[in-house]
Amino acid sequence: MQYKVELYDTTLRDGSQSEGVSFSVEDKLRITKKLDELGIHYIEGGWPGSNPKDMEYFKRVKSLPLKSTKVVAFGSTRRADNPASKDRNLKAFLQSGVEIVTIFGKTWDLHVKDVFKISLSENLKMIEDSIRYLVRHDIRVFYDAEHFFDGYKDNPGYALDTLKAAEEAGAEIIVLCDTNGGTLPSEVVNIINEVKAKLSVPIGIHAHNDCGLAVANSIAAVECGAMQVQGTMNGYGERCGNANLTTIIGVLGAKLKVPTIKKRTLARLTEVSHFIAEVANMQLPNNHPFVGRSAFAHKGGVHINAVMKNPRTYEHINPEVVGNERRILVSELAGRSSLSVRAKEMDIELDRKSPEADKVMALLQRLEYEGYHFEVAEASFKVLLHREVKKRTPFFDLLGFRVIVEKRKDGEILTEATVKIKVKDKVEYTVAEGDGPVNALDFALRQALKKFYPQIEDMHLTDFKVRVLDGSEGTAAKVRVLIQSQDSKESWTTIGVSENIIEASWQALIDSVEYKLIKG
Length: 520
Fold this sequence. Notes:
Layout: E1 6-9, H1 25-38, E2 42-46, H2 52-61, E3 70-76, H3 88-96, E4 100-106, H4 109-116, H5 120-136, E5 140-146, H6 148-154, H7 156-169, E6 173-178, H8 185-196, E7 203-207, H9 214-223, E8 228-231, H10 245-255, H11 263-266, H12 269-280, E9 297-298, H13 301-309, E10 327-328, H14 336-345, H15 355-370, H16 378-388, E11 397-407, E12 413-423, E13 426-434, H17 437-449, E14 460-468, E15 479-486, E16 491-498, H18 501-519
Helix pairs in contact: 1-2, 1-12, 5-7, 6-7, 8-9, 13-14, 16-18, 17-18
């Protein structure tokens, strides 16, 4: 495939329609800079005139020194009762100061008759007048043919008439939209091949994911000759989302070798995906293709053994191509080879044929049977290896702890923890208050240790999660506690399991401190 495909990102507009996503102006500017660094060709900034936030964005984005991208405004054709020269939306395009506008119009006669309640001929005039008006004002126009595939299946003649009206009015590219997300890849291929023969301007694709086919439909369109692909990073968007531009970039760049963005920026794909997820305050699924944390993670012993001999056995590309990394997970499913590899990554030598490997493997299987889950708590796994393989002497011994929770008549709740530890031949006894039992234990433990190990003052607890492992046991159920801690350099997760939530939390706290002291 020799032609270049342009990437059109609509995260800031279509993506913000995703439930739970709301971008501030600052958010939108930060994402714009990141997408520009990635090499996206067009960024749809929003709908000028629809809200103050978008107008502020278009005003401030002009000061960004963008190198790769052009910012595009989005909006609709003129209203049926307005000439183009007096239409508020069209005037807002001119006021935004953009060079390019993506304008959408109705392609499906169902919408024209049942939503607009106007004649089919009047809809054609709205499309033509709006585009001509913008072109006369030296605006480049991309035309989004909304609901095109549904419209074409119902009334192909009229759907094509709307595209012709846009083409004749001066649209630079015509983007075929699967707005309801219900079209199948085979239908996309057949319809695009029929439409291409009747148009002289390039076509693009804008697919929604209601059938889980938005990426497949976008790739099928490219293979049929589409020159522009519209989508959102991480697939954000209304209902089931838009075509996931993150996955599309991976497929086009790493699989089809279609020129889109440069190879050196393709290696930043994972970084940009996670950055946008963070700004959107949306957790990126671990199994996200190309960029997810589990995209190149291997857990099964047979898989790991093969990957270590030749990564191609279970990886379709080199993870580094998209800026990701291979991860070897340790669990009861893993074999001794994977255990040895994972230990080496933690700077611990463990011969897979040694008695130590057998011992650690048996311990790992027993602990996972009891409810431990080390692939989400790698710091605890490293502590385990230091205990079992390096035979490291404990940094301290617990002599006892106690937690008291008191609720007073006025509703105030007080929590106090006492911790008694021994470091070599010295005993330390401390008392601390906290917002809850785990918080109080954390404070008391670190107060007891800081005179011996002052480096722990650089760490603090950042997250605490509890999962009930067997709901049928009710309040007597075993629980799994995950604690995330952080210092000035990194964050790490530790785990504890017990029928007693305080004991499970203590286990995780101990591992967290041990990990900090091991790494120095």
